[in-house]
């Protein structure tokens, strides 16, 4: 197949602004190329992935959907990057078999019927916007089978969609994550620092247990980050910045557990499988993607949503989890090969239904 992937318009690839969809796109792209398909990625200027074929497009970034109200009208900056990327797609569509949209935004769905080429839409977050919900439902009716999600829990946040719906989950290159059997007395928290991620609850765990919290990830909301530090002055923590996978997995592997504190229905939670790959148990609220990734009492603990005392209690008994079981689960369920098979089948199904 000749495939054109169109990236998220909220930040350059490699910046961390796009969150987990950046890693997902990277991994899907690598595996699709390994399987012998031709691939071109269209992405914002400033993207730093030199090992993959990236066509860089300039323009102003889209605002992240998580920071907007449900009823906020769709907005476009002047010289919009998102529109510029789709203008490029329009110019080259004849050279490809299929376009895959990774943007969580209204425009690519709206434009779908105007293109001759089939367009697959990978939806990377749960429902956040009425306008986006409406256009996703419309496209699922007009082009059945072209909408893909990470998990059923994520898809359930949207109004009823027309089947078939594709659940594509996620996967990582296990060779990039080292297994660590002997952790230090420290906990990890990973991700974009933004209110929907609930980092303050991990600070509460660190303060109560007096175990140092290693915080890694992009600061997306500086005032939120400052407020957490003021509210938990006695929490032992270290902020290490937004790290590369190589640096991140080294510190993550040495942690007793990864604490996940999503306030929203997390679509998937790539950080959960990255932790498992290092042999690190995951303690999370039992909601959204993490609830389908973590096997309670086997690869971590799922606690009552928003219960900080539940997180603290689980942290105290995390030694009960066998770290090798965590690594083995990642290897079996979340490998790149398994991920590539699912995406390839989705693409083939779309092309067959068009033919
Ligand atoms: N991440 C990273 N370096 C860091 C912290 C996080 O590369 O220092 C990446 C991590 O690998 C993951 C992403 O940030 O891919 C967070 O994605 P996740 O799916 O957990 O949440 P999202 O941001 O999509 O809500």
Shape: globular
What is the string of helix and strand elements?
EHEEHEHEHEHEEHEHEHEHEHEHHH
Count, helices: 13
The helix fraction, in percent, is 25-40%
Taking the alpha carbons of the first and last residues, their distance comes to 14 Å
Mean pLDDT: 97
Q: Give a quick account of the main beta sheet: strands, pairing sense, barrel closure.
A: 7 strands, parallel
Low-pLDDT ranges: none
User: What share of residues are in beta strands?
Assistant: 15-25%
- Radius of gyration from CA coordinates: 20 Å
What is the number of strand segments?
13
The strands making up the biggest β-sheet line up spatially as 3-2-1-4-5-6-7
Provide the list of bound ligands, each named once. uridine-5'-diphosphate
| Sheet/helix structural class | alpha/beta
What can you see in these coordinates?
α1 (20-34) crosses α13 (336-354), α6 crosses α11 and α9 packs across α12 (323-333). Helices cover 37% and strands 15% of the residues. The protein has 13 helices and 13 strands. It is an alpha/beta fold and 355 residues long. The model has no long low-confidence stretch (mean pLDDT 97). α10 links the parallel β12 and β13 (300-303). It binds uridine-5'-diphosphate (UDP).
Topology:
Layout: E1 2-6, H1 20-34, E2 38-44, E3 54-57, H2 81-92, E4 98-101, H3 106-111, E5 119-123, H4 130-142, E6 147-149, H5 152-155, E7 166-167, E8 186-190, H6 199-209, E9 212-216, H7 222-231, E10 237-239, H8 245-253, E11 257-260, H9 270-277, E12 282-285, H10 288-293, E13 300-303, H11 308-316, H12 323-333, H13 336-354
Parallel strand pairs: 1-2, 1-4, 2-3, 4-5, 5-6, 6-7, 8-9, 8-11, 9-10, 11-12, 12-13
Helix pairs in contact: 1-13, 6-11, 9-12
């Amino acid at each position: 197949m000749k495939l054109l992937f169109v990236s998220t318009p909220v930040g350059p690839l490699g910046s961390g602004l796009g969150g987990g969809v950046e890693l997902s796109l990277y991994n899907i792209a690598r595996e699709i190329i390994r399987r012998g398909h031709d691939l071109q990625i269209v992405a914002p200027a400033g993207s730093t992935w030199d090992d993959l074929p990236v066509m860089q497009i300039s323009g102003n970034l889209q605002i992240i959907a998580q920071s907007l109200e449900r009823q906020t009208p769709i907005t476009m900056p002047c010289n919009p990057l998102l529109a510029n990327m789709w203008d490029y797609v329009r110019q080259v569509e004849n050279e490809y078999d299929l376009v895959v949209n990774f943007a969580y935004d209204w425009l690519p769905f709206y434009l779908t019927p105007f293109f001759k080429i089939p367009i697959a839409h990978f939806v990377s977050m749960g429902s956040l916007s009425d306008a986006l919900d409406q256009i996703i439902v419309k496209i699922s009716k007009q082009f059945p089978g072209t909408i893909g999600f990470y998990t059923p829990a994520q898809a359930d946040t949207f109004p009823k969609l027309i089947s078939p719906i594709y659940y594509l989950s996620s996967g990582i290159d296990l060779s990039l994550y080292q297994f660590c059997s002997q952790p230090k007395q420290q906990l990890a928290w990973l991700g974009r620092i933004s209110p929907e991620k609930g980092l303050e609850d991990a600070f509460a765990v660190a303060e109560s247990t007096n175990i140092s919290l290693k915080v890694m990830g992009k600061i997306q909301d500086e005032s939120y980050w400052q407020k957490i530090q003021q509210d938990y002055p006695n929490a032992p923590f270290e902020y290490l910045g937004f790290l590369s996978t190589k640096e991140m997995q080294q510190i993550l592997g040495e942690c007793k557990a990864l604490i996940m504190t999503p306030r929203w229905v997390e679509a998937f939670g790539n950080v959960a499988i990255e932790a498992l790959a290092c042999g690190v148990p995951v303690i999370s609220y039992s909601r959204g993607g993490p609830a389908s990734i973590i096997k309670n009492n086997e690869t971590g603990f799922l606690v009552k949503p928003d219960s900080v005392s539940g997180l603290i209690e689980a942290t105290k008994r995390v030694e009960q989890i066998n770290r090798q079981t965590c690594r083995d689960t990642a290897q079996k369920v979340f490998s790149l090969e398994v991920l590539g098979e699912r995406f390839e089948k989705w693409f083939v199904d779309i092309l067959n239904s068009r033919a």
